[in-house]
């Protein structure tokens, strides 16, 4: 009997979704194999289980993921009780690989921020790519509040725990000054210009980036807007070499397959190579601050960049 294939995702959004679909199809193929080994047709198995025949078909073709009890019933009727633990584990992996935002934040956003504290606390090396925003660990309180407000509003779960969620996101940042942890952030230059909140929020946020640059545990690279195209990618976070979190509009993907983590590592390396660092990164941040002053809504003194200590 072939082992279950629990592969879950690739780097681009469409590939990530197909990776989840592949895992569903692999689980379905394993269930179909058990049925055929028992010399049962789909109609016969459905009759034994008291199901509509279409339910058997949906499971076998990866259109639907069976519950734990449905797997137990299937294995009981096909003589595959020995495979129950592996099949249940595979089904749970599929369900956890694609976690819908509404389900993830059903009890509020604070809970998800707590999960981030745990994940980040166990990672010695964290690599984070953002194409349009400032990464959460580098956000100011006002910037984080604006981002989380947008998330709460679009999901519309009925739970508004903005203040608690922001408090917890700010608590996450203590890890930046903790021994034994390193951080590599790569952001697209657009992240310096996407207006989150308002001009005042953006000025504070950009000045905060200046203050983060001297931290020896933090590496910040910015991909210039005119940089050569390297690879298609949505935002993602690599936790050492054991886990990747990637986001789509509807869900968060958890990726643990070594071959796919390796693909994200290669993707991050390509993106990091196109980024600028140190004084060149400071110059891009300063230009973004200057743009805020050029609007006329803020005076130039208020957007002056933080001076680097030469001492």
Show the helix and strand layout:
Elements: H1 13-37, H2 42-49, H3 53-60, H4 68-78, H5 84-97, E1 98-100, H6 101-104, H7 109-121, E2 125-130, H8 141-155, H9 162-172, E3 182-188, H10 199-212, E4 218-223, E5 236-239, E6 243-247, E7 251-255, H11 258-273, H12 278-294
Parallel strand pairs: 2-3, 3-4
Antiparallel strand pairs: 1-7, 2-5, 5-6, 6-7
Helix pairs in contact: 1-4, 1-5, 2-3, 4-5, 7-9, 8-9, 10-12
Uncertain runs: 1-18
Largest sheet: 7 strands, mixed
Structural class: alpha/beta
Q: What integer value in Å does the Rg equal? A: 24 Å
- What level of helicity do the residues show? 40-55%
Distance between the termini: 67 Å
H/E topology pattern: HHHHHEHHEHHEHEEEEHH
How would you write the strand order of the largest sheet? 1-7-6-5-2-3-4
Strand content: 5-15%
Task: Identify the notable features of this structure and list them briefly.
311 residues; alpha/beta; 434 Repressor (Amino-terminal Domain); 2 domains; seven-stranded mixed beta sheet; 12 helices; 7 strands; disordered N terminus
């Amino acid at each position: 009997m072939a082992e279950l294939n629990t592969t879950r995702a690739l780097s681009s959004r469409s590939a990530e979704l197909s990776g989840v679909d592949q895992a569903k199809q692999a689980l379905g193929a394993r269930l179909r194999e058990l049925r055929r080994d028992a010399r049962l047709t789909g109609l016969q198995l459905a009759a034994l289980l008291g199901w509509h025949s279409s339910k058997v078909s949906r499971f076998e073709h990866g259109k639907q993921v069976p519950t734990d009890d449905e797997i137990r019933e299937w294995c009981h009727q096909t003589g595959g009780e020995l495979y129950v633990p592996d099949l249940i584990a595979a089904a749970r992996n599929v369900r956890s690989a694609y976690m819908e935002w509404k389900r993830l934040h059903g009890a509020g956003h604070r809970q998800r921020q707590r999960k981030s504290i745990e994940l980040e606390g166990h990672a010695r090396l964290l690599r984070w790519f953002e194409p349009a925003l400032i990464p959460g660990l580098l956000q100011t309180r006002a910037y984080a509040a604006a981002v989380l407000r947008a998330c709460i509003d679009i999901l519309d779960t009925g739970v508004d725990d903005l203040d608690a969620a922001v408090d917890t996101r700010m608590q996450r940042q203590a890890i930046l000054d903790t021994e034994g942890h390193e951080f590599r952030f790569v952001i697209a230059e657009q992240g310096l210009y996407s207006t989150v909140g308002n001009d005042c929020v953006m000025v504070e946020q950009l000045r905060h980036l200046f203050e983060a640059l001297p931290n020896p545990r933090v590496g910040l690279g910015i991909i210039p807007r005119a940089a050569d195209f390297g690879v298609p990618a949505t935002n993602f976070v690599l936790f050492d070499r054991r886990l990747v979190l990637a986001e789509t509009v509807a869900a968060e993907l958890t990726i643990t397959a070594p071959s796919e983590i390796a693909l994200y590592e290669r993707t991050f390396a390509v993106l990091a190579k196109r980024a600028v660092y140190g004084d060149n990164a400071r110059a891009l941040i300063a230009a973004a601050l200057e743009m805020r002053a050029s609007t006329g809504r803020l005076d130039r003194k208020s957007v002056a960049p933080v001076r680097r200590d030469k001492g």
